[in-house]
């Protein structure tokens, strides 16, 4: 239970997501499209491509985001707290 609470609300994950030199920073600096970034985050976290439904739900919010980094941090947080990630890792 402690591990689950740490992943969901603990400072460790949030600090890693907000770190200046992390994967999100590198993906943004690489000039990749939103779709390419979402696909790479899925492959990294879940070892699979995002489904059509996942892309359809994530890309509009990311495309409309005022701050892409904040939105990508939220997407990655969701992936890290998904059942797919928890049961694969």
Report the count of strand segments: 0
Number of self-contained structural domains: 1
SSE string, helix = H, strand = E? HHHHHHH
The profile of the biggest β sheet is: none
Structure description:
- Helix content is 76%, strand content 0%.
- Helix 4 runs parallel beside helix 6 (68-80) and helix 5 (52-64) packs antiparallel against helix 6 (68-80).
- It has one domain (2-88).
- The longest helix has 13 residues, at 34-46.
- With 89 residues, the protein is mainly alpha-helical.
- The model has no long low-confidence stretch (mean pLDDT 83).
Helix-strand blueprint:
Elements: H1 2-9, H2 11-18, H3 23-29, H4 34-46, H5 52-64, H6 68-80, H7 83-88
In short:
This protein is mainly alpha-helical and 89 residues long.
Feature tags:
89 residues; 76% helix; single chain; mainly alpha
């Amino acid at each position: 239970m402690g591990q689950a609470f740490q992943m969901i609300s603990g400072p460790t994950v949030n600090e890693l997501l907000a770190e200046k030199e992390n994967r999100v920073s590198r993906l943004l600096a690489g000039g990749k499209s939103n779709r390419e970034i979402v696909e790479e985050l899925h492959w990294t976290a879940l070892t699979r491509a995002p489904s059509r439904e996942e892309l359809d739900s994530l890309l509009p919010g990311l495309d409309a985001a005022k701050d892409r980094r904040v939105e990508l941090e939220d997407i990655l947080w969701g992936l890290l707290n998904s059942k797919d990630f928890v049961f694969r890792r």
